[in-house]
Each structure stands twice: as structure tokens, then as C-alpha cells.
């Protein structure tokens, strides 16, 4: 871990057309008042026109003009500096946007000039396989009949392509056949492609940033900002897609030695971040640990049994993910699989392909890195051999090449295994395995039902030692459900019997042909309720297509989707169903609020650099993107923060203001008194309800949260449970109450809110 300055907290903004750099600059005062120290921005370089996310960069030389261009960036920096804030920017080294070739000068030149292009080495293209295949044609045999030559370009409906010099005579079909590229059926993108993609997205072409020249060209603008002092931190998108992540990060660290550097590395349960020259991850590991604290592990057997009753079968997470990963490798990523199989020409491709696919399906993490990678490869080989003993000989041969660091297969296979994990698990299995969807989150482990306090404390203490500047988060633009939805769903783990009765009744009265997906949908509805009808319709359709069980993106099933949308409509239009759904959501919402405040305090106060995703300082019920990129009403948040600063202490249910109180007071204390957050020590509660408290001392600041609030209430509350603290006088920064003595009664400490943040009274007075 490098010794670099780092933010004390960040606030993520989805800068986009419609909320540009000037709109973002207008938030500087609010963010400073909130207590954050750095704005954390979505990618800012020029993206595909109209892009709402910025991860499809088309020109690395300039700020996106749709965001305000270079002038907008400079105005943002000035506004941030005037408010005492820094800037962290997201960058995208793995891929570039190619959906609109004319918008990407480098890609356009490659299409026009082929291997002779000065940019031919920018993109990870397999030139030896012939023309560059572009999967844009309709799935009809006569699609090429719609080609036209217009203004010296080849046109296919809205798509524009360049024409190589001296090749523009003849019919459009004849012109097409002379180009360095070939337009093909869009379905061939998954089975036969000549360039590496981001996952299975043919509109995002892989970059070769391992080439020093490509690195310099694609990073010059970002590094110019850093050298000028305009940039304090860098978030690296999807390093697992790179050929050599360790080498890339070493080069980036050398080019920006003073920057806070975090990577979007998704770690599996128990996996450690490689010893890279970075400050940590973007926080999915912390998300899983903090959120898991509020799930009751004792409910696992009940939910497993319920899943079996609802679906009529027993679903093994291990078998499900193996099958979804294998399908991803052999279908969605078949083109990448074929490219890898060709690297073992001495063996028949019909044997190498299934062996590589099986190894990828059995690989226990996204990808292996030395030296741990050898252990992961051995585990994959053993499991692949168990599942496919008929492939023993070829598995041994392929594994031997994967162990050879000088073999091209060893360099490229990790790029496949990471994509297989992402598409097979995150984007498929998470939508199929509906046992308890609060756990189906990026970086999570649905097979591990909850996190015990002792496990959390071990995780946090280790993090303080090794990665104290790693990011923590609860929501991102990639999370499947917002943090407050997951917090409310965690309440179901405290009443598994009641939930089983409710959902079984609803599913019997409003059946769906896919009962597993129906269970996922009912859980999501309860977690997000009340939610606008059109948002739930959009979520249901996307989630069902991602699951690829009863419908899919490639082959939508109109009959099933009609049935699915009819079910969503019944939630709103059937008076009895609507009333019961509303009543049940209302019943679990107060405990959900308790969980929301608890996990938020834990995330903000635990070791690391806490990030707050835009809007989540209030109650927030976002679902998967694009739902979680919806506009945020910052005027409401400004007004509520001003009322809090005027002395208002809201009830927990008051428009999310209690969450804003927790966020602002915790961030301000971290900003103003950082010396109180330099260690980590569990603080056990003593007494009959001790298991319902999670508390830790960060070196002067003590965070206290309530877990499993329904069970606590059923047991009669805190009783005489106490919390031992050090120091003569402490103040709860949320209520302003001062406590003296070495033991505090929990029922007194948490009488106003289910959380408390204690700090030495003199430090609170000094900060105020």
C-alpha cells in the first residue's frame, strides 16, 4: 500500500448530459456543508454522444463537450477549491466506445485504413483472422441490401462507416466487400468476433493499454490534470479486463505518484486484494461486510426451505453458478473462447474449447494473480476434472499452458475468466437465485447468509492494518438494489415464517410461470414499496431478461413478458393485493429504517474512505441501472441540512432526515477530527441484548448500531445491557447528549435513534 494523501470521504456524482459540470459545480457548497472532502465524478472524457454514464469514451484527448468541455472542468475545479474540496475522477482504461464509429477518431481510422492505421495497435484486434467483423446487421438474410453510399461513407440505416481510399466505386455491396471491416449479423457478435470486447458488449472495444504508447495517448489528459494539481484521486474502472493489471497500475502510479488510487476490483468471499501499488478497492468488500451485519444468520434454513417449496426444487448456489458461468463462456463469450482455443493449435479445437470453458466456469474468483493465482487455477482444474472426467487429458494440457507465464494463453485466459464471472454470476445467477435477494449484490456472496459481529470485526481490523485508505460504499451505479432496499429486505430474515406465508399466498393468487423469478420480484417490490409503476415494470423486464431463464435479451419471450407485466399491474390494480403489499411493507419499514441507519453509520465510520452515492443521504429506493442514475433533488437535501444545522432533530421516519443527520455528522467528524479515526477496536456490549449491538472504537470515536431490531423488541428491548467506554465525558454527535462514566445503558444511549456516534466532549465542542 503506497503512502499517499487520501480523501477523508467522497461523494459520487453521475455527471452526465442533463446534469453537467456546471450543475455539479453548483453542488460544491452543499457537499462541503455535508462534510465530504472530495467530489467523486463519473468519467469526464468525451463519450459516445448522448451517453448517460461516460464509460464509452470515444476521444481521450478532451473533456466531453456534452458535459461542458474543458471550460466546464476548469469551472468545476475552481468551485471545488473555493469550497475546500478535492476531485476524484473515474477513468476507463479497458475499453473505448465504438457504437458510433464517426465519434471515435481512432476507431474510424482503423476501419478506414485497417492494419496500416496508426491506431491499429490501440485496439485488441485479432488481425490474423481476416477483416474486422462489426456485428450491426439485422437478423435477416438480405440485410446488406439496405447498404447505401452517401457523402463518401458507407451507410446502414443510422450507422456510418468510412470507405478506404480508392475503394468507393461500384454498388454499395461491392464497396462493402473491399473494406478492412465486414458488417455482419448482430448475433455473430457473441460467437465470431475479431476484437476483444468489454464482457459481451460489442459496442465497447478492448484497448491495449499494456502498450506504453497506447497508455500515454489514452492517459495524457487525465495525467495533465493531475500534474496541474486539479486531480486528487483516480478510480480505475474494471482492471480485471486488462492484459496486465499489475503492470498497468505500476505505470499509472509512477505517472501520478501523489494521487489517491482505487480500483474497481471485485473480491470474492475471503479473497484478498493483490499487493498492487494502489490505496484499495472501490468498496464492494465493505458493502458486503457492513450490510451482512443486519441479516439474521439463523434464518438461512428457513429461506432455503421456502425456496424449495416455492420453486419445487432444491437449488445449489455452486451448481447454479457453474451452469450460468458455463453458459456465459460458451454462448455470450463464445467469440472470446474461440480466440483462446486458437492459441493451442496442437490440440483439436473441439476439445480445447470445452476444457477452457469448464476451467472458466470452475474458476473460484474473477481472475488469478501471482502468486495466489496458482492456487485458484489448481482449484479450478480439480473441480473441472470432477465435473468433466472425459476431458482429463486436455484439461491437463491446457492447465500446463496456463501455468506458463510466457504462454499467450496464460495472459489472455484471466481476461475471459473475469468476464465469465461477471456475466455468469452478477448478471445472470443473481437474477435466478431468489432465496434471499438482499444478499444478491455485487461483491457479495449469496451463499453466505449474513455476517456475525465477530467476523465483521476481524474484517475491519485487518482492513485498518493493510488497507486503511480503501474506499467503503453501500450503493454505486452498479449495485442491483439500493442500500435502503437491502436494509428493509434484511428485516425479512427476522420473520421468515411470516414472509413465507405472505409470499406463498401472493404467488398462489397471482402466479407466474417462473416461480423463482416471481419470488425475486415480490421481494424487490416489498423492499422498494411504494415505487412508481413504470419503474417496477422497467425493472421486472430487465431483471427477467438478465436471468435468461424464461426470456432473454437475445430472444425475448412475448408471452412470458406479457404475463410478467400483468403481474406487476396486479400489484397496483388488484385492491386486495395492493392493500396487503402496502400493509406488509409498512409493517417492516420501521425496522428497515433502523437497519439503514445502522449500516450507514458502520460504513461511514469503519476503516476506509467512505463514499456516499448521489442521493443516498436520504431514504432511497433505487433499483439496478438505469434506475439508480435518476435525477436527485438536491434542493430538498439542502433545505433539510439547513434545518438540521438550525437545531432540528427529526424523528427516524421524517423524510429520511435522520439518515441525513447520521451522514452529515459522521462525515463532519471524520473531516474535522481525523485523529479520532486512526485505529480499530471492537467494543462489546454486556448484558442480555449484547448480541444486538455492534460497536467499535476508531481511536476516540465510537460507533454504535442496533442489529436485528425485531428480535430485540420481541425479547423486551435492551434491558440492562451496557456499553463500556473509556474517557470521562463523551457526546453523541447525533443528539448532542453528554454522557459520563465508564458504562452506558444501551436503552438510554439509543432512546432517540438506533445509532450513536460518541466522541470526547472536548473534541466535539472544539469542532463545533
From TrEMBL:
Domain Glycosyl hydrolase family 13 catalytic as annotated: residue spans: 14-649
Pfam families (alphabetical): Alpha-amylase
Transmembrane segments: none
Single GO BP term: trehalose biosynthetic process
UniProt-listed InterPro entries: GH, GH13_cat_dom, Maltooligo_trehalose_synth_4, Trehalose_TreY
Gene Ontology MF annotations: (1,4)-alpha-D-glucan 1-alpha-D-glucosylmutase activity
PANTHER family given in the database record: ALPHA-AMYLASE FAMILY MEMBER, MALTOOLIGOSYL TREHALOSE SYNTHASE-RELATED
Alphabetical list of NCBIfam families matching this protein: trehalose_TreY
Entry protein name: Maltooligosyl trehalose synthase
Taxonomic path: Bacteria, Bacillati, Actinomycetota, Actinomycetes, Micromonosporales
Amino acid at each position: 500500500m503506497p503512502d499517499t494523501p487520501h480523501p477523508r470521504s467522497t461523494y459520487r456524482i453521475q455527471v452526465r448530459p442533463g446534469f453537467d459540470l456546471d450543475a455539479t459545480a453548483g453542488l460544491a457548497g452543499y457537499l462541503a456543508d455535508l462534510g465530504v472532502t472530495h467530489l467523486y465524478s463519473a468519467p469526464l472524457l468525451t463519450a459516445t454522444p448522448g451517453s448517460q454514464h461516460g464509460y464509452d469514451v470515444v476521444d481521450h484527448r478532451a473533456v466531453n463537450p456534452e458535459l461542458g468541455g474543458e471550460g466546464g472542468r476548469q469551472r468545476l475545479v475552481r468551485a471545488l477549491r473555493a469550497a475546500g474540496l478535492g476531485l476524484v475522477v473515474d477513468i476507463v482504461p479497458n475499453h473505448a466506445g465504438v457504437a458510433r464509429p464517426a465519434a471515435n477518431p481512432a476507431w474510424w481510422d482503423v476501419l478506414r485504413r485497417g492494419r496500416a492505421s496508426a491506431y491499429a495497435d490501440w485496439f485488441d484486434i485479432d488481425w490474423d483472422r481476416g477483416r474486422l467483423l462489426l456485428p450491426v446487421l439485422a437478423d435477416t438474410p438480405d440485410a446488406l441490401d439496405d447498404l447505401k453510399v452517401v457523402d463518401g461513407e458507407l451507410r446502414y440505416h443510422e450507422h456510418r462507416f468510412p470507405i478506404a481510399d480508392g475503394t468507393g466505386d461500384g454498388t454499395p455491396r461491392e464497396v462493402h466487400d473491399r473494406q478492412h471491416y465486414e458488417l455482419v449479423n448482430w448475433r455473430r457478435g457473441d460467437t465470431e468476433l475479431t476484437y476483444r470486447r468489454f464482457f459481451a458488449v460489442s459496442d465497447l472495444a478492448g484497448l491495449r493499454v499494456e502498450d506504453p504508447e497506447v497508455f500515454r495517448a489514452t492517459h495524457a489528459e487525465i495525467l495533465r490534470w493531475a500534474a496541474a494539481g486539479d486531480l486528487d484521486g483516480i478510480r480505475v474502472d474494471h482492471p480485471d479486463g486488462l492484459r496486465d493489471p499489475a503492470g498497468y497500475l505500476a505505470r499509472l502510479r509512477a505517472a501520478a505518484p501523489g494521487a489517491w488510487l482505487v480500483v474497481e476490483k471485485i473480491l470474492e468471499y475471503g479473497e484478498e486484494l493483490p499487493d498492487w501499488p494502489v490505496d484499495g478497492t472501490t468498496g464492494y468488500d465493505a458493502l458486503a461486510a457492513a450490510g451482512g451485519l443486519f441479516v439474521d444468520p439463523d434464518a438461512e434454513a428457513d429461506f432455503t426451505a421456502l425456496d424449495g417449496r416455492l420453486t419445487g426444487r432444491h437449488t445449489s448456489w455452486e451448481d447454479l453458478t457453474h451452469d450460468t458461468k458455463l453458459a456465459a463462456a460458451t454462448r455470450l463469450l463464445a467469440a472470446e473462447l474461440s480466440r483462446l482455443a486458437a492459441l493451442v493449435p496442437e490440440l483439436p479445437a473441439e476439445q480445447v474449447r470445452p476444457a477452457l470453458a469448464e476451467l472458466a466456469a470452475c474458476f473460484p474468483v474473477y481472475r488469478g494473480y501471482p502468486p495466489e493465482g496458482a492456487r485458484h487455477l489448481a482449484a479450478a482444474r480439480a473441480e473441472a476434472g470432477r465435473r468433466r472426467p472425459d476431458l482429463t487429458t486436455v484439461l491437463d494440457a491446457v492447465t500446463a499452458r496456463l501455468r506458463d507465464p510466457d504462454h499467450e494463453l496464460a495472459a489472455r485466459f484471466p481476461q475471459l475468466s473475469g468476464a465469465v464471472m461477471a456475466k455468469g454470476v452478477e448478471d445472470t445467477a443473481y437474477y435466478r437465485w431468489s432465496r434471499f435477494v438482499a444478499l444478491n449484490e455485487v461483491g457479495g456472496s449469496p451463499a453466505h447468509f449474513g455476517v456475525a459481529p465477530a467476523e465483521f470485526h476481524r474484517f475491519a481490523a485487518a482492513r485498518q492494518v493493510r488497507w486503511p485508505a480503501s474506499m467503503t460504499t453501500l450503493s454505486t451505479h452498479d449495485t442491483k438494489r439500493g442500500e435502503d432496499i437491502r436494509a428493509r429486505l434484511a428485516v425479512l430474515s427476522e420473520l421468515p415464517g411470516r414472509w413465507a406465508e405472505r409470499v406463498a399466498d401472493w404467488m398462489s393468487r397471482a402466479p407466474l410461470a417462473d416461480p423463482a423469478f416471481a419470488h425475486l420480484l415480490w421481494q424487490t417490490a416489498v423492499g422498494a414499496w411504494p415505487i412508481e409503476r413504470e419503474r417496477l415494470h422497467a425493472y421486472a423486464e430487465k431483471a427477467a431478461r438478465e436471468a435468461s431463464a424464461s426470456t432473454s435479451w437475445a430472444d425475448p419471450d412475448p408471452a412470458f413478458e406479457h404475463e410478467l407485466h400483468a403481474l406487476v399491474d396486479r400489484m397496483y390494480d388488484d385492491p386486495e393485493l395492493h392493500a396487503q403489499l402496502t400493509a406488509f411493507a409498512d409493517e417492516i419499514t420501521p425496522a428497515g429504517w433502523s437497519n439503514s441507519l445502522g449500516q450507514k453509520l458502520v460504513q461511514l465510520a469503519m476503516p476506509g474512505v467512505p463514499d456516499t452515492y448521489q442521493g443516498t443521504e436520504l431514504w432511497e429506493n433505487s433499483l439496478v441501472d438505469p434506475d439508480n442514475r435518476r435525477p436527485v433533488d438536491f434542493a430538498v437535501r439542502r433545505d433539510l441540512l439547513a434545518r438540521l444545522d438550525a437545531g432540528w432533530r427529526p424523528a427516524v421516519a421524517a423524510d429520511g432526515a435522520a439518515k441525513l443527520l447520521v451522514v452529515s455528522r459522521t462525515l463532519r467528524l471524520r473531516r474535522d477530527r481525523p485523529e479520532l479515526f486512526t485505529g480499530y477496536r471492537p467494543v462489546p456490549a454486556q448484558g442480555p441484548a449484547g448480541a444486538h449491538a455492534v460497536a467499535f472504537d476508531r481511536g476516540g470515536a465510537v460507533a454504535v448500531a442496533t442489529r436485528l431490531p425485531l428480535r430485540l423488541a420481541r425479547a423486551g428491548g435492551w434491558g440492562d445491557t451496557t456499553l463500556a467506554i473509556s474517557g470521562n465525558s463523551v457526546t453523541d454527535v447525533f443528539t448532542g447528549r453528554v454522557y459520563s462514566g465508564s458504562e452506558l445503558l444501551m436503552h438510554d444511549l439509543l432512546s432517540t435513534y438506533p445509532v450513536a456516534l460518541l466522541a470526547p466532549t472536548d473534541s466535539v465542542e472544539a469542532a463545533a
